[in-house]
Amino acid sequence: MLNKIYDWVDERLDITPIWRDIADHEVPEHVNPAHHFSAFIYCFGGLTFFVTVIQILSGMFLTMYYTPDIENAWKSVYYLQNEVAFGEIVRGMHHWGASLVIVMMFLHTLRVFFTGSYKKPRELNWMVGVMIFIVMLGLGFTGYLLPWDMKALFATKVGIEIAASVPFIGEWIKILLAGDATILGAQTLTRFFAIHVFFLPAALLGLLAAHFIMIRRQGISGPL
Amino acid sequence: MHRGKGMKFVGDSRIRSYEKNRIPKDYSEYPGKTEAFWPNFLLKEWIIGAIFLVGFLILTVAHPSPLERQADPTDTGYIPLPDWYFLQMYQLLKYEFASGPYNVIGAIIMPGLAIGALLLVPFMDTSKERRPFKRPLPTAFMLLTLFAMIYLTWESVVNHDWDAAKAQGEIVEEAEFDTSDPGYEIYMGQSCVTCHGENFEGTPAGVPLTGTGHTAEEIADIAVNGVVKDGQQTMPADAFSGSEEELQQLAEFLSTVTQQ
């Protein structure tokens, strides 16, 4: 039955090559932990993606309760943390996942660096990877403000002052991020929320797609 | 788009119609112990994901994510701390050569150089050699950077007063009390309110009164004699000035707050 449905769709849309491009490739021996246990270092990239998926899913659930407004942001997080069923778990996954994604991404970067995998012909993929790193740090920075508690507000103040110290364009960056030249308040929170849930994830998904298309095109780097 | 004699299409679409099933490549033709990603490898790889997820969930359940009290922009005494992965930058900005007039060095130039160098590594290390020990310069630079990052983070962690950080951010429960009580009127009329706040929430000059557990007698004593802690007068004596009866009313009213 399922096969018949598949064939029916495939005949009309020729979908087989699409998933074959993604799924149908060989895994070489030197990256397979089943053959060499030390090959677990090749899992860091995949685990980074795994945590990223967890971040997206848990973040989607968090927005069902979160209110990006200075009156209610903290209260909504407090409610989520203390009243909502499993709210503590979902927020905990998003909170700790944010740290884990940095850890796994850092380990993945070190693996690629020390195995020299960024060399020709994989220069572009390395650069896209570094951009993903920057976007992830941006997600961490903007997400830190959203609970609107004391450490969020004052850490963001420091962060925005650092951004403002960029020569020539610092003041513009500050106003773009904070929404005002002097106040860090309601505008800042809505902007950080928008950046955190729309702008940066969009950039991240684009960069991840490029990262994965390139790795599928070129294949994983050979053994040392 | 493919065109040609003898090619068949599905209807008037551009999808080619195939006579027989396309068979996937046989992996036996690849050298070494390679295996198919789908489904062979994936059926083993999920185990690593599952182990990782278990560890992750244990961490999540064992350590609820922190939430400090609601942001209060007027509380300028608060000492901020970024998330742990920014601690290295935070620490860098404490050094003389990277702060004050040289702030731009610590805040922009050094992180910018690090990220820029990381981005352009493939164009600086262009040899074909991939083994880390056969290309000593890139390896040495990366190890040096790693050491610096770990050292800066470590310095930042040991120099931070974690107890004070915890105390300054703690959520203070709001006290429930009766504003029409004559005791509250006395509280507001005396010097108590200037340090302990209108809602007993405390200020930088005085501790919160909620939940201290003091009885009415103790409060009456404190209001007259102040508080001495470790040989230091932390609350001045004779803070209360009024009749004995008023003192009694105040103490009884406050004991309803301190017992909360």
Descriptive report:
The complex is a heterodimer of chains A (224) and B (260). With 224 residues, chain A is mostly helical. Chain A has one domain (42-218): Cytochrome Bc1 Complex, Chain C (Up-down Bundle). Chain A is built from 9 helices and 1 strand; from the N terminus they run ααβααααααα. In chain A, helix 5 runs antiparallel to helix 6, helix 6 (123-145) packs across helix 7 (150-164) and helix 7 packs antiparallel against helix 8 (170-178). The relative contact order of chain A is 0.10. The mean pLDDT of chain A is 94. Chain B is mostly helical and 260 residues long. Chain B folds into 3 domains: 34-65; 84-160, Helix Hairpins (Orthogonal Bundle); 182-258, Cytochrome Bc1 Complex, Chain D, domain 2, CATH 1.10.760. Chain B has a two-stranded antiparallel ribbon with strand order 2-3. In chain B, helix 7 crosses helix 10 (244-258) and helix 9 crosses helix 10. The longest helix of chain B is centred in the first third of the chain and has 26 residues, at 37-62. Chain B: The chain crosses the membrane at residues 46-63, 102-124, 136-154. Chain B: Residues 27-154 form the Cytochrome b/b6 C-terminal region profile domain. Chain B: Keywords: Electron transport, Heme, Iron, Membrane, Metal-binding, Transmembrane, Transmembrane helix, Transport.
